[in-house]
């Protein structure tokens, strides 16, 4: 197999910690730690913090790197601490009318539910759509059936679009079952119906190439596939959609905000037309400098190369598990993988064995130095560009040990 597109030596991972759970929290490269340290050194001596290089330069470089990652324009990027905060900016800024509706797949991660549910008092409904036969969520999450390659979730979502639907809000790659939706098919259908497609992209970005065609907004935090600490991410908005949103109303969202030759108390100003109009205030330079390093590494390696590598490792693992107690799941997941329905999460359904079984699997894994995660009936194994074939062999040995 080819060398991993992200050199494992760039990270602080060791033999005792095989981390296959960037779908919870990604490891940060050493370069991010160096950048954070260098920035904090400047903060110790604030006379070293440069206006153009740091205060303006770091956010500008981060917007440019995020745009390169998404294949978009830097002026459409708003730096935003989390996926939630990006979606909240859209939810709070959208020109709602009483009776409007947000449509979403059943069982979204709460970051893509609460921003819309918070609109109830403004007369906006939130309606969930089941994506396949036997799909369950909420208190029934563990008794549901997993997605199969024959499922047609996009058709169900498009069919469910109603008279009052203004926004279709969904996760590109789902957090529990790892299923990847076809954004461009949905985007096209939304455009044809005058509906906006708003995407929670955190479980796909960094490991799956993005195509923004047909989307109105794409929000992500930086702490999973983007390999940065919690607390810094970004929101991309399509220009015309953004113009319809109310701005954040922060002091940096207006023209000439940092031109101190003009009184800051002069409030006769226009809102900025670009993504900065949706930013939450003064930039978090410490966080921005670490995410910037991670994005540089990812862009340099290239997301298509990372995605290809991850798919090869996934195939290798599924083949290695043939004939084990996971056999039925390997067949289901192979079919999903081959039909382009997976991101970086291989989510093994419990198949009626229940939470105790999956938690026991996890604990045995921890003792062997293999760190995976469980969510809503699935054992999640997530590979990234820094994993190796040897890592897959260790995961396979761990999973094959259950009879
Ligand atoms: C699909 C999805 N969206 C969002 C998040 C995180 O949201 P935030 O960036 O707001 O913390 C997660 C995981 O924590 C997730 O799996």
Characterization of the model:
With 403 residues, the protein is α/β, with parallel strands linked by helices. It folds into two domains: 8-28 and 303-400, Alpha-Beta Complex (Aspartate Aminotransferase, domain 1), CATH 3.90.1150; 51-300, Type I PLP-dependent aspartate aminotransferase-like (Major domain) (Aspartate Aminotransferase, domain 2, 3-Layer(aba) Sandwich). Helix content is 36%, strand content 13%. It contains twelve helices and twelve strands. It has helices at residues 30-44, 51-70, 83-93, 114-117, 153-160, 183-192, 239-244, 285-301, 303-320, 327-338, 354-367, 389-400; strands at 18-19, 77-80, 101-105, 125-129, 165-171, 196-200, 217-221, 233-237, 345-349, 370-371, 373-375, 378-382. The strands form three sheets. The protein has a seven-stranded mixed sheet with strand order 2-8-7-6-5-3-4, with helices on both faces. A three-stranded antiparallel sheet has the order 9-12-11. The protein has a two-stranded parallel sheet with strand order 1-10. α4 (114-117) links the parallel β3 (101-105) and β4 (125-129). α9 (303-320) packs antiparallel against α10 and α9 (303-320) runs parallel beside α12. It is globular. The mean pLDDT is 97. The site of pyridoxal-5'-phosphate (PLP) has 12 residues, from α3. Residues 82-84, 109, 111, 171, 175, 200, 202-203, 221, 233 line the site of pyridoxal-5'-phosphate.
């Amino acid at each position: 197999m080819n060398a991993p597109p992200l050199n494992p030596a760039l990270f602080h991972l060791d033999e005792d910690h095989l981390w296959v759970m960037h779908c919870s929290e990604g490891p940060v490269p050493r370069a991010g730690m160096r950048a954070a340290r260098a920035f904090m050194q400047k903060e110790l001596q604030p006379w070293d913090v440069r206006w153009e290089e740091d205060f303006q330069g770091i956010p500008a470089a981060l917007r440019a790197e995020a745009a390169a990652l998404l294949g978009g324009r830097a002026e459409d990027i708003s730096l935003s601490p989390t996926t939630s905060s990006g979606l909240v900016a859209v939810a709070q800024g959208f020109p709602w009318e009483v009776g409007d509706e947000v449509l979403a797949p059943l069982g979204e991660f709460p970051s893509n539910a609460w921003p819309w549910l918070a609109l109830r008092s403004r007369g906006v409904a939130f309606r969930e759509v089941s994506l396949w036969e036997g799909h369950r969520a909420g208190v029934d999450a563990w008794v549901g059936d997993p997605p199969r390659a024959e499922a047609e979730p996009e058709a169900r979502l498009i069919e469910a679009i109603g008279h009052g639907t203004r926004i279709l809000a969904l996760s590109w790659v789902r957090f529990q079952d790892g299923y990847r939706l076809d954004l461009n098919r949905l985007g096209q259908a939304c455009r044809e119906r005058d509906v906006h497609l708003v995407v929670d992209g955190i479980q796909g970005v960094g490991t799956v190439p993005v195509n923004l065609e047909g989307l109105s907004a794409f929000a992500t935090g930086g702490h999973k596939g983007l390999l940065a600490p919690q607390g810094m991410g970004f929101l991309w908005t399509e220009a015309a959609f953004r113009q319809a949103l109310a701005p954040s109303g922060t002091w940096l969202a207006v023209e000439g905000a940092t031109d101190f030759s003009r009184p800051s108390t002069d409030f006769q100003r226009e809102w900025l037309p670009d993504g900065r109009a949706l930013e939450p205030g003064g930039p978090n330079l410490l966080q921005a400098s670490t995410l910037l390093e991670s994005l540089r590494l990812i862009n340099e390696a290239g997301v298509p190369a990372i995605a290809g590598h991850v798919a090869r490792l996934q195939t290798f693992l599924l083949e290695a598990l043939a004939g084990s107690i996971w056999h039925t799941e390997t067949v289901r997941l192979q079919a999903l993988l081959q039909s382009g329905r997976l991101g970086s999460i291989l989510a093994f359904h419990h198949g009626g064995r229940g939470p105790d079984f999956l938690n026991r699997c996890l604990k045995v894994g921890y003792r062997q130095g293999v760190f995976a995660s469980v969510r809503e009936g699935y054992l999640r194994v997530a590979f990234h560009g820094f994993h190796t074939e040897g890592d897959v062999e260790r995961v396979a040995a761990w999973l094959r040990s259950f009879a």
